[in-house]
TrEMBL record:
Residues 35-46 have a biased composition (Low complexity). Residues 20-34 have a biased composition (Polar residues). Residues 15-51 are annotated as: Disordered. This is DUF3597 family protein. It comes from Massilia frigida.
Length: 138
């Protein structure tokens, strides 16, 4: 599980689609034979049902309601955001998150990387059903 996934698990409820594992279910050959499908025969993938509208989660309310939220500057600092979520905020962890999010800048320039990371995490939260204040995302 990646760092971004850990962030999602700390903010979104366990029933939220953003924290649900995504896996493709393959039909084993034995099941295909018992279903009357010849080995090597082309199979049609099952079409998933239409997705229900994604429930919006108020990220600001959740983070503001956490213990230590008043003493940490989670609104602008990726380090404080990770600390608030009880996740590893070390430089190595942030570099891993940067790699996970395809950061193309210089990871030795931690100030620039941190600003970029915070913005990207907020964008990812918003893209996955989080209600994030406009000033915290692109």
């Amino acid at each position: 599980m990646g760092i971004l996934s850990n962030i999602f698990h700390k903010i979104f409820p366990s029933s939220h689609p953003a924290v649900q594992p995504t896996s493709t279910q393959a039909v084993p050959p034995a099941s295909m034979q018992s279903a009357g499908v010849a080995p090597g025969a082309p199979t049609q993938a099952a079409v998933p049902p239409p997705a229900a509208p994604m429930e919006q989660v108020d990220v600001e309310a959740i983070l503001s309601g956490m213990p230590q939220s008043q003493s940490l500057n989670w609104r602008t600092s990726i380090v404080d955001l990770l600390k608030l979520l009880n996740l590893d905020s070390s430089l190595q962890s942030r570099k891993e998150l940067a790699h996970e999010l395809d950061y193309t800048g210089d990871t030795s320039d931690s100030a620039s990387m941190n600003i970029w990371l915070h913005r990207q995490v907020m964008n990812k939260l918003a893209a996955n059903g989080g209600k994030v204040p406009a000033d915290l995302k692109d």
